[in-house]
Design goal:
Length: about 550
Amino acid sequence: MGSMTQKRTPSAIDAVAEDYVDRSLALSPSLALYLGLDGAKGFDDYSPAGLAAINELTVDTLEKLAEAEKTAELDDIDRVTVDAMRDRLGVDRDYFEAGIKHASLNVIASPLQDIRDAFDLMPTETTEHWESIDTTLAAVPNSVSGYRESLSLAKERGRVSARIQVEKVIEQARALAEAGSNFDTLIAGAAEVPASLRDQLGGHAEAARASFAELADFLASELLPAAPENEACGREAYALYSRDFLGAEVDFDETYAWGLEELARIDAQQRQVAEKIAPGKDLFEVMALLNKDPERTLHGSEALRDWMQTVADEAITELGKSHFDIPEPVRTIECMIAPSATGGIYYTGPTDDFSRPGRMWWSVPEGVTEFATWQEKTTVYHEGVPGHHLQVGQATYVSDTLNRWRRLMCWVSGHGEGWALYAEKLMADLGFMDEPGDYLGMLDSQRLRAARVVLDIGFHLGLEAPASLGGGIWNREKAWQFLTDNVAMDRSFLAFELDRYLGWPGQAPSYKIGQRLWEQFRDEAKAEAGADFDLKAFHTKALNLGSVGLDTLGRAIRR
């Protein structure tokens, strides 16, 4: 593993992958920011010309890959790289050709959020850091203007996001345009820098805010009148989105039916556990009792951060003893409260040299001051160890065998989120969730993800809704009822969840479908090895591959 393995001589395939990374970084400063590269600054060109330049790189790399494959001797690592690059770059090319990149607009993962959130990752300790932030802030107006160009072109081609998504993104843009928004909060931290730089930062923050005011006006006047009411993307587009998020092709009708069965199975399990906690009470009543339990309540964001850190550190210590090989640099994780207030919880990987550790971020919504540990212990395992932190940290650590594209740029939601959900269930299987409240929280997390499979596929493909919703075709009202019937979350969280699913097709089901495929691969390997099966060795082998599409993962494990 990692530095303990013999250093591999880079191959012709690795050279293609490394060249792709270098050229991607040149075209995408935000990628360099995300990867924590020294001196990363500036912003991407979201204009039609900028998107075309990235597509040219994609197509060129696919050609070079095919050429190298013909002439080179391939080992197992090369075979996985070729398989994974063909999958990932193929999806990117298909998105571009369908015009989906130009039309990108939703409440969670489109250029507006990319620009807003990039600043969360930028260091602020030195004057040089603030100079990088200043350069990046200065690039925001141009980036926003290019984004408007692409949205205009997509509109001319008849591709505009649904009305509700456009309205919500207008709200987000207006919030960023206001005095005191993220940009002002950011530069308020620049107290120690020279006055001239502070003045520059102030001017660039003001210009960034103004560019979002212009974006909001543009969306309201140009895009909103052309935005369709219908939020369902349809089967053809859904197949492409799903392939992106899974790196696998699945039978949607079979998966929808399985999601309904899985939901019923988890519901029955939850009711059994609830009966143990408070006999005679309904499941949701028991959850309300757990939420009021002072023993299970944290007060304030600082207490939440400290608790997350304690749970994450304990998991690393315990699992590192016998269940997983955890390399030394991966034994450090930092738990953070994110500056934004979206309600999201996410993970950012370490830098390639581990100088910036992996981080678990909690974006606490305005006014939320209390947190229930019974619901969130499983979240810490999902984001930390053995979830994302182990998975991403491990791939970063094996730098002697994996090229930079495999380690740093290839991220497949179904692989990553599927593993993290697999990790939650694994922690229960290993006895870390034996306390009934924590176990109920794990089941609740699994239930949410099963509900997403049903809602997302059902809604976007226009399938028959369950009888509990009155049957008929799915719509927003049925989707909301389905969520509130099945998910014990605060309604403001749930409202954002629903907007997210309907504006970002295929992403939400990738967790549970990914977990299903991970468990299938493990069970196949177990059946084949019989008494010789070693779970720790299976995990090490699989994680050492890095994040790849699930079809690629299945082929690599079977080899």
